[in-house]
Amino acid sequence: MIMKSIPDKVIGRLSRYRELLSGRQPGERTSLFSHEIAAAMRLSDCQVRRDLMAIDARGVPSHGYDVQGLLQGLDQALEQGRIHGVAVVGAGSLGRALIASLEASRTNLRIRCAFDADPGKVNRVYSGVKCHGMDALEQVVAREQVTLAVLCLPPGATQSVAERLVRAGVKGLLNFSSSPLRLPRTVALEEIDIGNQLAKLAYFTLHPSKERRNGRLEER
Fold this sequence. Notes:
The chain is an alpha/beta fold.
């Protein structure tokens, strides 16, 4: 399959398609139609076909998409062969839940370390991942070859910690704080404000729209 520039939103959906197909058990059907993938993802079949055309994947009218071939194309597009070291900063309830979830999944993401300012959490092991003190951040990030970090911190601490991570060589950050970060454009950044997402969800429960499919807006 030919590699090409793929829009950010499409990359996000391709990752979800891969997660769906990777969870299929041996012995299940070896091919799927676009409308079946769409139903599982709560998208339109047109959206699915457009997304998969971005990696030059095309189904056959008689039996749809070959599952293994599609997985191989998704792996190539998402560069699943490359392992990424991940750090979780903030070993509270959210941080520990993320560690457990990611460690249980079979992906190219490997949680190498965790960090917390609470002395009671330092040197403890959560789901097989050791938690370090914040004073060891730069040293451990370099030693463990961490390139991605997840921030589960109070808003006031997020910016300074993010800057330390970037100086230590981290290339991508996932921020769960309600405080937006200001970082160089060379750093990949995703921000998830859970409170804001819940507020938006509450609005849509009061103002349902026909354009929404089971609570998810279709985006090209």
